[in-house]
Amino acid sequence: MKKRKQMKKFLAAAFCGILLAGSLSGCKVAVSDEAKSESAENTQTAKGEGEEEQSQAIVKYGTELTNLNLDGTLHGQYEGQTLTVPVMSGDFEKAVSAVAPIFEELSGAKVVIESIPGEQYTDKVQLDLNNTHKYDVVLSPIAILHSFAIAGKVEPLEELIQTYAGESYDIDDFLPGLFQTYGYYDGKLVAIPYKPDVMLLFYRKDLFEDEAVKAAYQEKYGEELKVPETNEEMVQVAEFFTKSQNPDSPVDYGYCAMMLKGSTRLLFFNRGGDDIDENLKPNMNNGEGIKAMNLILDLQKSAPKEWVQMGWDEANQFFANGNAAMMEQWPGLWLTCQAEGSAVKDKVGVAVAPGNTPTLGGWGASIASESQNKELAWKFIEFMTSKDGELLKIENTMDPCRASTYEIPQVQDSSELYEALMESFNYAKTLADVDVPYISSKLCDVMETYIQQAMEGSITPEEAVSGMEKEFTTEIENLELE
C-alpha cells in the first residue's frame, strides 16, 4: 500500500477547496433478496447491565446483533444531546438514516441528518468546517478527508478510541491495507473506513465459457482463453473480442471504460502508473508510468472511439447493452448489469483488475475538530463501523470494511462481487484522487490533460509522464513544503 504522506508545513493560511471527484461516487453493490428480507426476531435484548429492556433483537445475514450497545457503553446517557451529520443525498442518506433511529434509542441522543446533493456536498461540508461549525460527523472521500486533516479541520481519533470505545471494537479486524490507507494521514488516525471502493474487472462470463469461442481463441493464439490476470493477457483478449481486429468476434469491442475527462487517470493507475510517492514527490515519470501509458494506447485499439465521451452512466449502459467483452469499473456497474432489461443480466463475472494494481477509492468517517460533541460523535462512528453496525449498512450499498464481515457465509452469498472486492483490497495502492491537500483537484486535472493528449496522439507517452512530472513539481513546490 502507498505509505501515508509526510506533510511537514504549509504556508497557506486559508483552507482551499477540493472538488469531489466523480469517480468516487455512486459505487453500489446489490444484495440478495433473502438478506434484505431478514427481520427482527421476537426476542428481547437489554441495553446494558441494570438498564431497561431495549427493542427487539435484530438479525442480519444470519447473525443476531447482540452488541449494538457497544459492550454496554450506550445506555441512554446522551439524552438531551444532538448530533448533526451531513450526508450525500441518495445511498449515503439511506444508509445513515436507517441506523440513526437505532442509535438514538440506545444512546438517548438525537441525530439530525442533513441531506446535501452530490454536486454541492464537498463545498457545503468545507464551508461548515471553516465557518459555521454545526456538523459533528464528516463522511467524505478519503483524499478529501486527508485534506481536511492536514488543515486541522477533523479530529485525531486515537485518544477518543482509547477513552470511549467498547472493548470489542477491534481496529485490527478492519482489512489491513484499507484501514492504513483510509485512516492514517501524516502519522495520525483521522478517519475510520466506512465505504470501501476499488476498481474491478467485469467480464462476459457467457463468452469466456462458450466452447466455440474458446476453440477459436485456442486456434488463433495457441493458448487457452481465460480471464486475464496480466496486462499483456488483457490486451490480447481485448484484441480477440474486437471486430475490427477479429471479424468473427461475437461482440463489437473487447474492452471499455469510462474515459470522459475526470476518469482517465483511473486507467493509468489500474495499469501500474502512480502519481506521488511517500514524500509527496511526482512518481509517474519512470518505466512503470511509460508502460502504463502505452498499455492505455494498446487498449484504446480495442475500445469504442466514443469512450472519451463516456462518463459513469454512459459507460455502464454501454457494457450492459452487451457491446463489450470486458470493462474495468467501480462496483456499482454490477447493479446496471443485473437490472431488468440488461442484455448481460446473469452473464457477467467479476475479477481483480489485471496487473494487480487496481485503483482505490472509498469514503471514511471523521469528527469535525470544532464539534462540541466529540464523545457522542465518536460513539456514532463506532456504532456505524462496529462489527454489528457493518451488518446494518450492507443492504444500503455500504459494503463491508471488516474482514470478519466478509467471513460470514450469508454475506459472502449476498453478492457475487465480494470475493473479488476483498482480494482487490490486498493489491490496491493508489487512491483515485491525488492525495496532496489543497491541490488534489488541480493535480488530477493535470493528469487527465496529459493522458488525453497522449490518447489523441498529440504527444508521446514519454512526453505525457514528463509533462505531468513538471507540473506536479511546480504545484507542490508552490505549497512551500519543508
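[next item in queue]
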Amino acid sequence: MISFRRRGFWQMTAALLTLIGTAFYWPVDAQAHEPGQPRDQIVIFVPAQPGGAWDQTAAVMKQALEAEGLARQVTIVYRPGAGGLIGLAQLIESARGDPGYLLVGGSPMMGAAVANRSSVTLLDTTPIARLAGDYEAIAVPSRSPIGSPAELVRAIHDRPNGIAWVGGAVGGPEEWLARRISAAGGADPRLISYQGMAGASDVAITLAGGPPDMVGIAAQSVFAPHAAAGEIRILAIAAPGDAFRGVPTLRSAGLDLTGHPWWGVFAPPGIPASEAKRLSAAMSKMVASGVWRQGLRDRGWTDEFLTGDAFHAYLMDEQQRDLARQNGARLAAPGGIARPALVWTLAAVGLGLASALAVLFGWRRVRRKRRERAVREGLAGIAALAPAAGQTGTQSAHVLAINREFEGWGLSPAERDVAWLLIKGLPMSEIARVRGASERTVRQQAQAVYAKAELEGRSDLAGYILDRCLSLAD
C-alpha cells in the first residue's frame, strides 16, 4: 500500500473535497403534479433499519396509497442512523421543496434530537400528519430468570444499576422509561447502563442474543413476533389498565408508568402550501381506508391521526416537554428528586463561569456546531445520490463510485458514514459527536474500515479514494 507524507495527505484531501464537495448539497428536482391527479411516484424515507414500527408504517402506507389511487407508485428507502437524524437531515436538505418525498418519524426522533443537541428537528420539516402510536413493551431474553414486572423491580432493588438496558436512540422515550423503572426499583436513574440502538428491530435481535440480565424496551408490535418465536419473553406492557392483549402492564405491578410513542409523516421544508394541504387530504383518505384500518388492528397500534395546525402545535408542545425532561434529568438528585438549593448554587456558579469563558470559548462552540451541521447534511446529501434517483454529473459519478468501493469492502452503514468523515478530515472526537456514539466505538469502526479495505490508516484511505476519483476523470 502507498504511504503518504503529511503535506501530501492534506493536499490530496483538499483536492478530494473540492471534487466531491458539491455532492453534499445535490438538489432533488421537484416532480410535476397536475391538480387532482395522483402523484406518479412518492418516495418514503424510513430513517431506521427494516423491521421496526416506522418500516411497518411505510409498508402499510404504500399499500393504502396505491390501493386508494393516491399515488401510482410508492418507493421505500432506508436512511438509518443517529436515532433517525441522518434521514431527517437528508429530507430537509436534499429533498427541500419537493412534495414527492415523505419521511416517517415521531417521538423517538424528537427525544434523540434534544439529547444530541441536533441542528435539525422535525420542526424543520413540513409536518403533514400524526398517524399512529404503540405501547412500549418490556422484555428479557427467553433464558432470563426474571419472570414478571414485580421480579424486575426486585432485581433492580437487589442490584441497583446492575441491569443492562437496551432500547431505542439515546434521549428517546425508551431510555426515559428505563430510567423511571430503575428509579422505582431504587436505582439511581442517572447511572443506569443503557445502550441505544438504531432501530427497534435491532433491539429485539440484541436482546435475543444478550445476557440473562439484559432488559429491552421497544414497541410491543416489534417484540411480538420475536416473543412468539420463543426468542424473548415480554414481561409487561407500559399501557393503562392491568393487561394489554393478555400481557400484564407495569401498573399491575404497582408501577404507575406508561409509555406510548407516536409517529407520523413529514414532508420536506419549502413545499408550496397547496401541496401541504393536498398531502394532508391524502393522509385523511389513507387513514380511512380498509387497508390502513386493518394494518392498525393487525399490529395493535392506536389511531393517533392529527393533521394541520393542530399537529404543528402538538409538535411544539412535544419538543418543549422533551427539553424540560432532559433538563430535569440533568438536575435530578438520586431517586429523581430535584434539589432546589443545589440547583441555585450551581446556577450562580455557572453564570459566573459562563461570563468569564464566553469570549474565550464561545466562538469555538459556534464553529463546531456549524461544522457538525454541515457534516450531517453532507452525509445526507451523499446518501441521496442513489442510482435510482437518476442524477447525473461528475460529482454524482464520483460519489457513486466511492459508495461502490465501500460496498465492495463490505462496510456496514455505520462504517460507511465513519469512512466519509475520515476522508473529510474530522478528528475522532468530532466524528463521535456527529455520529452520536462514543469515541471508542468510532475508533473501532475506523479500524474496521482500514482492515476491510486493507489500508494502513486515514492517509492511505484518503489517497486511495483520491486516486479512484482521478481515475474516473481520465
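[queue empty]
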